[in-house]
Design goal:
Blueprint lengths: L1 E5 L4 E5 L3 E7 L5 E8 L51 E4 L9 E10 L18 E10 L4 E10 L4 E10 L5 E13 L5 E6 L7 E6 L3 E7 L8 E8 L10 E7 L4 E7 L5 E7 L6 E3 L4 E3 L2 E7 L2 H16 L13 E3 L1 H4 L5 H14 L3 E4 L27 H12 L2 E6 L3 E2 L4 H5 L19 E2 L5 H17 L4 E4 L21 H19 L4 E4 L9 H6 L2 E3 L6 H11 L8 E5 L13 H8 L3 E4 L8 H23 L1 E6 L6 E7 L5 E8 L10 E2 L9 E4 L5 E3 H7 L1 E2 L19 E9 L3
Bound molecules: (2R,3S,4R,5S)-2-(hydroxymethyl)piperidine-3,4,5-triol.
Length: 742
């Protein structure tokens, strides 16, 4: 692995065993992009990759060179308004109103490992051997602004991270009109664009399209990364699939407003931009100040989408998530939300928790409704003090009682919000985001606290820390149930109002950082009405997130399948809930609800007292199974096998690092009469290992299972056998494959 600068050709080559990334200093001093893809042998000069030609209707930089126009040159971090008519990566707005800038190469430096990004979540290294970082400094002479472009290449896998930092070394203040994290100019548009989109209760659905001339984009202007679009993009070659072919994955480590876009120009070259949404962003830089963009992660592979996902999974599990819980199998929890909603007493909670304990649950989570005047969603947010009418012993007393039952205790917060009916709001009505003279809109009867203000973040920190210090709280579910409107902070001057969305997210990160630092053993689960902020930024602080409020097993197949494109199983909160399901009113078998949820951080979202004796026994078995296999389920190598977006069946599997154990999840949405023979070609097994199949009792070598397939045919062909219903709609199975000693 290495990062090489070839002085004579002014070419940078960043490479490891998998990838090469090539760029060069152009003759106008800007940085040109030459290549990103499969590793190629290093050599002194790659500048021939820089293609230029004389094109009509073009604006040129040099009078004597009709080939040099930025419009037709692939660049690393393009500027606005000087011969390039595509969308730029940055805009520097100067005192005289000009937006023209000219950032020229000054110097570069190399360092082992990876520097931290102040105040922002980012991937990290634990030793200098794991990665190397190149920082290229460019300067705009007229304004004195320096631009640092950061590139980190990891030693293993096709991973390259990027970000940009503006350091104002001039005199007069400037404003950044946009500051993207990454620009990637590619020589052709022969890719399928694949995004994860949806809405509340339907997050992370896979949508694909071909790239056509013009701009196609996903993003958020809601203040949170959003249910609507995940900050993640796949570009795959048309013939690439899960098992083979060239794929580029792009993930933005950010939880606020973002944009990821592709611009195909008139000559079919492709510009990808990713970063903070430019529409809702502006940042003033006084002399001496600097601005750091969030980090973008690029993954390249020529081994298909499963391999791309596995690369993200390992990176995000091991080098984005942090702390005590990073590598640990997650506790099996019972959350009371769908069991009681706001209607509970301490005794009712103890009843639910006692049954959960009897079934083997390890963590009892008290959701919304325990604090202040909260008996519905009209009141209480902001007052993080137990409601003594409901909880006579307070949180300390309840946590004590749960611990006495032999379980850990977890608690719900929504730190960023306030109801008007709360002591906090009555004391500090000016602490919400609201535009003077304008109506302030609400969502779910609540208002957004101005987290761009340190005193607001401090006040919430104090309240939360007090509870965590005084009560045995082992887990926090951190919710965020509305998006931002009328974004304006009373604490900041007019010329800094464009900063508030980003400053808000920095405030959220700051609170997370302080709490996770102060209470390192607490397991944090992020949440935003389900998956409204299920993004890599959150993963840095909270190693798991509540992926969706939709707990229906069939809906979850698509949501979890889509999310697995980027996010590891250890990050996806997935629970068994009641039937009829509370979101879609569908009845699904208990085993299928568990068979879906076990490919996630498993738990129950119901009152187990309400199950029949037979169902209770089934739950005990599910929990025993989960305890035995959760390390593998959550941290093994995950493969998607059959897509729920494409047919009536879905399947996925995990394989242990030593390839001796594999679990296959197989799901059929609707039953079929006289159904076909079916089989699944498995992945990731050792061809020479002989695996025992727990369902059939057969022993099969890995090669049989991978090349010929695991037979999943239902022997009744979908019909009841001997008068007994053997299968029905929404059936599923888990196959356990254990290799015999070899
Ligand atoms: C939205 C979350 O996604 C739910 O799980 C639950 O915590 C509610 N908020 C509580 O208000």
């Amino acid at each position: 692995m290495g990062i090489v600068y070839h002085e004579s050709s002014k070419v940078f080559h960043l490479y490891n065993d998998t990838i090469s990334y090539l760029m060069m200093v152009l003759k106008n001093g800007h940085l040109g992009q030459l290549y990103f893809g499969k590793r190629i042998r290093d050599r002194e000069d790659f500048s021939y990759f820089l293609e230029t030609c004389k094109r009509p209707m073009t604006s040129y930089i040099y009078e004597d060179d009709r080939t040099f126009s930025l419009e037709h040159i692939r660049q690393e971090y393009p500027v606005f308004g000087t011969t390039d008519y595509r969308q730029p990566a940055m805009e520097v707005i100067q005192e005289n109103g000009s937006r023209i800038s000219d950032f020229q190469y000054q110097s570069h430096r190399l360092e082992k490992g990876k520097p931290k990004l102040p105040g922002l979540p980012a991937t990290y290294t634990e030793s200098g051997q794991e990665a190397e970082t190149l920082t290229v400094t460019l300067k705009d002479e007229l304004t004195g602004v320096e631009l640092e472009l950061l590139y980190t290449i990891f030693t293993k896998g096709g991973i390259l991270t990027r970000s940009a930092r503006f350091c104002h070394k001039g005199v007069k203040p400037i404003r950044l009109g946009r500051a993207m994290s990454l620009c990637l100019d590619l020589p052709d548009r022969d890719y399928v664009w694949q995004q994860l989109s949806g809405c509340w209760a339907r997050e992370c659905h896979i949508h694909c399209r071909n790239l056509e001339p013009g701009i196609q984009a996903i993003g958020s202007m809601r203040g949170n990364s959003s249910h609507e679009h995940n900050p993640f993009l796949v570009l795959r070659r048309p013939h690439a699939d899960e098992r083979q072919g060239e794929v580029i994955g792009l993930s933005l480590i950010y939880s606020g407003n973002f944009r990821i876009q592709a611009e195909v120009d008139a000559h079919d070259t492709l510009r990808i931009l990713a970063g903070i949404d430019p529409e809702t962003f502006e940042w003033k830089l006084e002399a001496g100040e600097s601005f750091q963009t969030p980090e973008a992660v690029l993954v390249y592979t020529d081994q298909g989408m499963n391999h791309m996902s596995q690369t993200f999974h390992k990176l995000y599990q091991k080098r984005l998530a942090r702390g005590y819980w990073r590598d640990k199998a997650r506790p099996i929890l019972n959350n009371n939300w769908e069991a009681t909603y706001f209607d509970f007493t301490e005794e009712r909670l103890i009843e639910i928790a006692s049954k959960a304990k009897e079934c083997g649950v390890e963590l009892f989570v008290l959701d919304d409704g325990w604090f202040g005047a909260r008996s519905s969603d009209h009141a209480g947010l902001g007052d993080w003090k137990a409601n003594r009418e409901r909880l006579p012993g307070g949180i300390t007393g309840l946590a004590e009682r749960i611990e006495e039952l032999g379980m850990k205790f977890g608690l719900w917060f929504e730190p960023e919000m306030v109801n008007k009916d709360s002591d906090l709001y009555r004391q500090h009505p000016d602490w919400i985001l609201a535009t003077p003279g304008r109506k302030v809109s609400y969502g779910r009867y609540q208002y957004v606290l101005d987290f761009s203000r340190k005193e607001v973040v401090d006040a919430i920190y104090e309240q939360m820390a007090k509870i965590l210090k005084n009560a045995k709280v082992s887990y926090i579910k951190w919710d965020m149930n509305r998006s931002i409107t009328e974004c304006f902070s009373k604490a900041w001057p007019a010329d800094r109002q464009g900063e508030i969305y980003h400053r808000y997210i920095l405030g959220v990160y700051d609170l997370y950082e302080r709490l996770t630092w102060e209470f390192p053993h607490v397991l944090f689960e992020s949440c935003s009405s389900g998956g409204g902020r299920f993004d890599p930024g959150m993963l840095y602080y909270a190693p798991q997130g509540w992926l969706s409020d939709d707990s229906d097993a069939v809906e979850r197949l698509k949501i979890q399948y889509g999310a697995s494109m980027c996010y590891p199983i250890s990050s996806m909160g997935a629970h068994v809930s009641v039937t009829p399901n509370h979101q879609v009113f569908r009845n699904t078998p208990l085993h299928t609800r568990a068979n879906v949820a076990c490919f996630g951080t498993f738990g129950y979202e119901l009152d187990l007292n309400k199950l029949t004796a037979k169902e209770t026994e089934e739950v005990k078995e599910q929990i025993a199974f989960m305890k035995k296999y959760r390390q593998l389920l959550q941290f093994g190598t995950f493969y998607r096998l059959e897509s729920p977006f494409e047919g009536n069946e879905a399947a996925w599997m995990v394989v242990s690092d030593d390839q001796k154990t594999a679990l296959v999840g197989w799901y059929r949405i609707l039953n079929r009469v006289n159904g076909n023979y079916t089989r699944l070609r498995l992945e990731g097994l050792n061809p020479a290992y002989c695996y025992r199949n727990n369902r059939s009792g057969l022993n099969n070598y890995g090669d049989e299972l991978m090349y010929a397939g695991l037979i999943t045919t239902d022997e009744t062909a979908g019909q009841g056998a001997d008068g007994e219903i053997a299968c029905s709609d929404f059936d599923s199975r888990i196959y356990i494959l254990e290799a015999e000693e070899v």
